[in-house]
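[Meeting: bench + compute handoff]

Bench side (C.D.) handed over the final construct sequence. Compute side (W.E.) agreed to return the predicted structure before the next meeting so the bench team could plan truncations. Sequence as handed over:
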Amino acid sequence: MSEVNRPGAAPVAHTTDPAKPGRSRAPWEFKVLLSFVAVLGIGIILAWTLVGSRSPERLEPAAASELSAACNDAQTQLASLPNPFPRTGADRVARIRAENDVLRTMIRHFSEVRPSAATPAVAVRGWSDDWSKAIDARERYANDLETKKTAQFVLPATQGLKPITKNMDDFVRENHPNLNACFVDALALETVEGQRDYKAVTG
């Protein structure tokens, strides 16, 4: 009879094979890890929101306030224009041209803003130029709608891929929340057909 099976023999201790995988993590360890990641993510979001972007294109508060005031004023004027849902071609042309007049006045106010630092000043000029290009595209659409059987609204794009309106909104985000009134959607810049909707945009 073997030693293991002999009655009265002491039980044989079994050791863990070191080649086998170690223990799995306990559920509480995963919870601690997930909690840490969540706290870290919330901290990053709050830091960005409260402190703001540190981009070299970020404007000083006074310059951002002037630009924001121009956008707010433009939004108010746009919302007061007649026929906010033009249906016929002639009404759409008239509405677009009236909107373009308001937007061009807004851009003239942009040109009066003088950021103190060189990089933000260059950024404002480039941003204003993009606004002008987008308005010119709206004007071309209105002209085509008036004189041709078909018309297509085509926004200029950077490198042929990214519409300039995306770059324009990127600059606004660099200055969040001081420039939120100037988001493209807040001024319905890309709307040339259908109902106009002027609303606050936060990001």
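W.E. noted at the follow-up: Strands lie at 157-158, 162-163. C.D. will use this when planning the next construct.
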